[in-house]
Design brief:
Elements (H helix, E strand, L loop, with lengths): L1 E5 L5 E5 L9 E10 L2 H7 L13 E2 L3 E9 L11 E3 L14 E2 L7 E5 L30 H15 L6 E5 L3 H12 L4 E6 L2 H8 L5 E4 L5 H8 L4 E6 L5 H6 L3 E10 L18 E6 L4 H16 L9 E6 L3 H9 L6 E5 L1
Parallel strand pairs: 4-7, 9-10, 9-12, 10-11, 12-13, 13-14, 15-16
Antiparallel strand pairs: 1-2, 1-4, 3-5, 3-8, 3-16, 5-6
Helix pairs in contact: 2-3, 2-7
Length: 343
C-alpha cells in the first residue's frame, strides 16, 4: 500500500509499504478519506508532545474513514462493507523497520479494533471510538465527525453550561466547531476572537454573539465593555501558549482558561499580574477515546435534525496523490476550514 510519510527533516513523501497486519480481534479497513488537522501541522513541524526526532520518519494522519474489507475471527462488531471511523496503522518493527506512526490514517489501508472481542474494559482505548457509521452519511465528509466528537467531548469535560460566558480564541476548523456546538448546547454568550475577518463573519452566522478582530482593537477593553466583571471562560482553540496570558485580564474572579490541543512548546510562563486573585488553567491535550465515542450519538442527532450541516465546515478536497501539495497549502494557511484527502 501507499502511505504519507513525514521524514526526520520535515520533508514529506508518499511511500510504498506493506499492508498492516491485523489480529483476530481486529479488522482491516480500506481508507476512503482522511481529514487534515492542526495536529498534523505540529507533527510536520516535529513539535508534537511525545514524538521526539527519534521516532521519525512517521506515517501521518488520524482523521480517517474507511470500509472494512477483512475481519478477524473474533470480530463481531464489524462486518465487511461497514464504513468505520478512526482506523490507524500502528508501528510494526518487522513490517516497517525504522518507520514510526503518527497514527497512520493517511494510508491506503489501516486497522480498527473490536471492543467486543476483549474482556470488558480491556480493549485498547481507540476501540471505543472506532465507530460504525450510518449509511446516510457521506463517508468522505464523515471525517468531520472526528473533530465534532472531540469538540463535544471537550465541552462536556470542561463543564461549560448555558448561562456561562466564554471567549474563544481562533476561528479555524476547531474554533468554529466549538462555537457552533456551544450554541447548540445552549451557551449564548460566546465571543469569537481572530485576526481574519472572513473567519469571524463565518462564526457570526454560526453561533458567535460577538466577534472581535484582535489585530484592530484593544481586546481587553472590548471584552470588558461587553462583560465588565470578566467572562467565565476563555478557550484556546489554537493550541498557542500566548492565549493563557492574553486571557488573564479577560476572566472574572474564579474564571477558567481552557486550553485544547497540544502546544508546540511543553512549557509556559504565566503572567497573572492582570488577572483577578482566583483563576484556573486547564489543559485537555488528548481527549479520551471513550469520551469521543460517547459523544457520537449527540453529534448524529444534530445532523439528522438538520441543526448541524457537515459540509459547512469543509473548504477543500484533495486527491491522495496530491497530498504533499495539499499539506504545503495547509502549512501556508491556504485552507480556510477543513481540508480532506480523498483516496
Amino acid at each position: 500500500m501507499k502511505t504519507f510519510v513525514v521524514n526526520k527533516d520535515g520533508s514529506t513523501e508518499i511511500r510504498e509499504i506493506p499492508k498492516p497486519r491485523y489480529s483476530s480481534k481486529q479488522a482491516l479497513v480500506k481508507t476512503i478519506a482522511c481529514g487534515m488537522c492542526g495536529t498534523d501541522v505540529k507533527l510536520l513541524h516535529r513539535t508534537f508532545k511525545g514524538f521526539p526526532e527519534s521516532v521519525y520518519p512517521i506515517m501521518l494522519g488520524h482523521e480517517g474513514v474507511g470500509e472494512v474489507v477483512e475481519v478477524g475471527s473474533e470480530v463481531t462488531t464489524f462486518k465487511v462493507g461497514d464504513k468505520v471511523i478512526l482506523p490507524f496503522v500502528d508501528p510494526d518493527p518487522e513490517l516497517y523497520p525504522g518507520l514510526g506512526s503518527g497514527w497512520g490514517a493517511l494510508s491506503e489501508y489501516a486497522v480498527v479494533c473490536d471492543p467486543a472481542a476483549w474482556p470488558e474494559g480491556e480493549a485498547p482505548g481507540c476501540a471505543y471510538a472506532q465507530t460504525v457509521l450510518s449509511d446516510d452519511l457521506d463517508p468522505v465528509d464523515a471525517v468531520m465527525l472526528v473533530t465534532f466528537r472531540e469538540v463535544l467531548s471537550n465541552i462536556r469535560y470542561f463543564g461549560i453550561k448555558p448561562g456561562d460566558s466564554i471567549v474563544v480564541f481562533g476561528c479555524g476548523p476547531v474554533g468554529s466547531t466549538f462555537i457552533k456546538f456551544l450554541n447548540l448546547c445552549g451557551v449564548e454568550d460566546v465571543v469569537a476572537v481572530d485576526i481574519v475577518d472572513e473567519k469571524l463573519q463565518y462564526v457570526k452566522a454560526n453561533g458567535a454573539k460577538h466577534i472581535i478582530n484582535s489585530k484592530n482593537v484593544d481586546l481587553t477593553a472590548e471584552i470588558r465593555k461587553l462583560y465588565p466583571d470578566g467572562v467565565d471562560y476563555v478557550l484556546d482553540a489554537i493550541g498557542a501558549p500566548f492565549v493563557v496570558n492574553a486571557a488573564m485580564p479577560l476572566i472574572k474572579d474564579r474564571g477558567w482558561v481552557l486550553c485544547y490541543g497540544v502546544p508546540e512548546k511543553e512549557e509556559i510562563t504565566i503572567d497573572f499580574s492582570k488577572a483577578d486573585y482566583n483563576w484556573r488553567v486547564v489543559y485537555q491535550q488528548m481527549p479520551r477515546k471513550e469520551e469521543e465515542g460517547a459523544a457520537h450519538q449527540q453529534v448524529m442527532d444534530w445532523i439528522h435534525e438538520g441543526k448541524l450541516v457537515v459540509k459547512d465546515f469543509i473548504s477543500d478536497y484533495f486527491k491522495f496523490e496530491d497530498s504533499v501539495e495539499a499539506y504545503n497549502k495547509l502549512l501556508n494557511r491556504e485552507i480556510t476550514q477543513k481540508g480532506i484527502i480523498v483516496f
